[in-house]
Amino acid sequence: MDDYTQLAESLNSGGLEAGLRFLNQRVDHRFTAVYRLQDMVLHNVELVDKVVDDDFDRGGLQSVPLGESFCQFVLRDGFFRTSRTTGMEALNGHPHQGVMESYVGLPLMSSPDSMFGTLCHFDFAERPLSDQEFTFLQRVARLLPRYL
Hints:
The protein is an alpha+beta fold.
């Protein structure tokens, strides 16, 4: 059974959380999430965190103004992918530059001309994502809206 079929089975049997857990296990990034864009604010729909027991307050990840998120670049450019935000000239002045070091995000479309929000992996540490995994994530972004 290929990975795409395994993901679909996870989504069918366990819903969005199970699907995001499957995706999160494939990468080194700490977080995998789906955000919904509403009124220029990104609202977390589901978040998977590899770290269960720590003192990090995930409350700050629940709602993020679009202008303070990396998701703004997903909406503008169709994707955003970096393994190291520190030193990225395009991010100078961004409040999360160097804080959230790595980020990969893709748009989730609720219809061909209407965006639901984003699918993303992110981490405080530098985490590269292979081209192969990015291509897989692009396929996933077309599948996930059915489960939202």
